[in-house]
Each structure stands twice: as structure tokens, then as C-alpha cells.
Amino acid sequence: MSLIVIGDIHGNLPALDDLLSKIESASPEEVVFLGDYIDRGPDSRACVDRILDFRDQAEFQVTCLMGNHEDWMLRSFHDPTKHSWLVGMEAETISSYSTRADDLIRSELERAGLKLFTEKVEIPYQLFFDAMPEGHLDFFLNLKLYHRRHDVICVHGGLDPEKGPVEKQTREALLWGVDSFPQDYTGNDLVVYGHRNDFVVDSDGTPQPRVTNSRAVCIDTISQGILTAMRFPDRLVIQG
Question: Residue 216: what are its φ and ψ, rounded to 5°?
Fold first, then answer.
């Protein structure tokens, strides 16, 4: 059975559309998204819409994983005094859902200034989440931390080589990775991951997945404007 794994998207709708059109014609038996659907690019909302449509219309299993950017965002959903998401990122994701929410939240962030770091300041993030379709919020809240398929493990950030199998890993390691991964990973399962913007450039100048010790493959190339997927078990690279 063929498995296709898709790397970080980061709001790049043209690349996502192009890649999914190629995948749909390939008739896979299973597709896994590695997370980081939002932020950086301008079309976060449209990308989530496209993924939901793809999942709902697919005649095969589609699994969507949590990325660290979705995790960041949901921290602000659960606690409006948590600001790491927007302090660390621009607000393209919010504006893709609501320019009004973007303007008001940005204004409150500017008003708070340094108090964001020294006090527990509430920012009205709920304006953003209220503007989000219910299906989108449900999508974000139900993302998985990893997916195992026979001898292939799909995960956003990586594994901690000291923690054993994926079932025993911490949430932090799965979403953010650790410094010793992938170079110290010696497990039997092949790990396919994104998050790290770690790729090799071929002779044509095109970014390609980076393979470490033949047991770990990074397919995060979206910073170069190219969305990468890999099919298993033959490791065919598909790009949009």
C-alpha cells in the first residue's frame, strides 16, 4: 500500500494546489500531512479549506498532524495571556480570516508593549477564533501528534533518540524536535518529518529531501516556494 507524506505548507496555496492535483492523479492509499499549515504565507485560511475539501472528497485515508505553529496558535486559544505565537510571527494568519480581528489584535499588542513580557496581559484573541469557521477550529483541535504506518513514522518535529519509540515521546519533542535528532537517531523505523527547513539542493537548484543515516527524511522545502511530498515505500519525490 502506498503512503504519501506532505511537508510544511505555511499558507502557500499555489504550491498546495499544484501538489494536490498531482497526488490526486496518483491514486494513493493513504496521505499524511505533517503540519504547519498556517503562518508566513498569505493564504492560511484558504490552505485549510483546500485540505478539508481534499480530505472530505478523498477515497483514501487522510491524516493531518499538528505542527508547532498550530500548537503555538492554540496556546493563545486556551489562554489569552500566552503571546508566543504572535510575538514570534507576523499576523498573516489572522488577517487571512479577518482583517478586523487583525487590526484590533495588533492594536492591543502595540498598546500592551513590554507588558506582554512582564505581566499577564490578556489580548482579545477570541476575535480571531470567533471569525474562524467552526470546521477549521475543530480541525486544529483534533490534529494528531504522530502517525505510524508499518515501519514508517510520520511526525512534525522529530523524535528524542533518548526516549525510545514514538509512543513514549513527549509532545515537545514530537512538535519541536531536539538537538540530537536526526543525527543520533538509530531506531528501526523510518522517520519522515518537516519543521526544520533542512534540505539539499540538486544540480538544477531545486530543493530536495534530506536523508540522514537512511532512517530519517526531512521533506520541509516550503521556504524555497516548493512544497514537497514523498511516496513510500519507493521514496518517489512529488513537488508543487
Answer: -145, 130
**Single-letter amino acid, residue 213:** N
Q: Report the first-to-last Cα separation within the chain, whole angstroms.
A: 23
**Quick one: how far is CA 33 from the chain centroid?**
7
Same domain, 21 and 118: no
Tell me the average pLDDT across 233-239.
Answer: 93
Is residue 114 located within the same domain as residue 160? Answer: no
Q: To 5 degrees, how large is the angle CA 109–CA 114–CA 118?
A: 115
Q: Which residues contact 226 (CB under 8 A, 6 or more apart)?
A: 15, 206, 207, 239, 240
Mean pLDDT, residues 4-23: 97
User: Could you tell me which residues come within 8 angstroms of residue 175 by beta carbon, excluding any fewer than 6 positions away?
Assistant: 35, 66, 67, 68, 71, 145, 156, 157, 195
CATH of residue 35: 3.60.21.10
How much is the pTM? 0.95
Is the same domain home to 121 and 210? no
- How does pLDDT run across 96-113, given as a tens digit for each residue? 999 999 999 999 999 988
Q: What are the φ/ψ torsions at residue 231 (nearest 5 degrees)?
A: -100, 140
Summary mean pLDDT of the chain: 93
Q: Measure the CA–CA gap between 123 and 116, rounded to whole angstroms.
A: 9
Least reliable range by pLDDT among 5-9, 51-55, 70-74, 210-214 = 210-214
Question: Does the pLDDT value for residue 24 go beyond 80?
Answer: no
Of 185, 195, 182, residue with least CA distance to 156? 195
- Work out whether strand 30-33 and strand 61-64 pair parallel, antiparallel, or are unpaired: parallel
Q: How far is CA 168 from the centre of its chain?
A: 21
